[in-house]
Specification:
By secondary structure, the chain is an alpha/beta fold. The chain contains four helices and five strands, in the order αββαβαβαβ. The longest helix has 10 residues. The protein is globular and about 35 Å long. The two termini are 12 Å apart.
């Protein structure tokens, strides 16, 4: 999870910095990473200031784009914030996701029933985040 928070520091989103790590289930390999921000080659800023509609790609979305592991490879996802419903659907379609850990709540919990319905376990990690160095 600490790595997810380190990745979130790369985000240029004005409202919320989010980081995601997709790992093997034994945590020995990092399969993909992502943080929220604009598309490659575009201005490294938000397109708009409207909350929830800033135009940035979400961190989970970028991690899914970056993941080249086959669908059947078991995966664990660590994300600084509870995924939104659209990112939950992207993680479902990635395939192989067994569990998602998150540190902070998100303004919507609409992803929880989707993840539960598809058998992906989700766990909120209690405590103060990010951890101290």
């Amino acid at each position: 999870m600490k790595m997810a928070f380190e990745l979130s520091k790369r985000s240029t989103c004005q409202r919320l910095q989010v980081g995601t790590v997709i790992a093997s289930v034994d945590y020995r390999r990092i399969l993909a990473v992502g943080y929220n921000g604009n598309a490659s080659g575009l201005a490294n800023t938000c397109d708009r200031t409207e909350p929830g509609n800033c135009g940035c790609l979400h961190s989970e979305e970028n991690a899914v784009i970056n993941c080249v592991e086959p669908r059947e490879t078991p995966k664990i996802v660590l994300v600084t914030h509870l995924p939104c419903s659209q990112c939950a659907k992207r993680l479902i379609n990635l395939g192989g996701v067994k569990r998602i850990y998150y540190a902070h709540e998100y303004r919507s919990k609409s992803s929880l029933p989707l993840l539960e319905q598809t058998g992906i376990e989700i766990e909120h990690l209690p405590g103060d985040w990010p951890p101290e160095a």
